[in-house]
Design goal:
208 residues; four-stranded mixed sheet
């Protein structure tokens, strides 16, 4: 009987230990637990943006949506003092439309669109080498469909040809997908590239 009690006691300790480990291993991460590299290869901690409204966007310099840079810069100038931060992450994964070095991309954006918001190191947002930040963002807000807009029919056709089940996966579909994070650090909205930029601006303004 003593051996049985001892065995049950040890099993109980093991269960507690295992549960604690699982809880720690399955810790719910916050947006503020992540960081990205800037063009100088320095860490930019999202914790530094605690209490801000953050717009995170994967960009490209040779895309039909590249003019979004102009509206993003306009938003930044209007709302930065009210608490808006924009994190621009160039990405070459969609149509190979972000060629060049980080410095060349930065020069292009400042020359053509007078951008002043922070630009990060060119990175991947899908696949084995995707930024951990993007793994988190896609877990929080998956793909919910492509809104009608410029290039929408063309993109949908292209997506279907590449993957008939594209709409069932949370992956980033194309350049200029935007995630919006509120002041509490919650990922509250995902805007696909075809979304009206005026709608994006109105939503961001409502959070400030």
């Amino acid at each position: 009987m003593k051996k049985i009690i001892t065995s049950l006691f040890l099993m109980g300790l093991l269960a507690v230990s295992t549960n604690s480990y699982a809880e720690e291993g399955n810790k719910i991460m916050s947006i503020y637990d992540y960081s990205v590299k800037n063009a100088k290869n320095e860490d930019v901690k999202l914790a530094d943006y605690n209490g801000k409204v953050i717009l995170i966007v994967n960009t490209a310099t040779g895309c039909g949506f590249t003019p979004h840079y102009e509206q993003l810069e306009s938003m930044y100038k209007k709302f930065h003092d009210k608490g808006l931060e924009i994190i621009d992450i160039p990405c070459h994964q969609f149509g190979g439309q972000a060629p060049g070095t980080d410095d060349e991309i930065h020069q292009f954006c400042t020359l053509h669109y007078n951008t002043t918001f922070p630009q990060m190191k060119k990175s991947e947002v899908n696949g084995e080498n995707e930024l951990p930040l993007y793994t988190y963002l896609k877990q929080q807000k998956g793909f919910e469909g492509l809104p009608e807009g410029k290039y929408s029919e063309l993109l949908i056709k292209m997506f279907k040809e590449k993957d008939p089940d594209y709409d069932k996966k949370p992956d980033i579909k194309w350049n200029f997908t935007k995630f919006v994070v509120n002041r509490k650090g919650e990922v509250v909205r995902r805007f696909e590239p075809t979304a009206d930029m005026n709608e994006v601006e109105k939503f961001v303004e409502s959070l400030l």
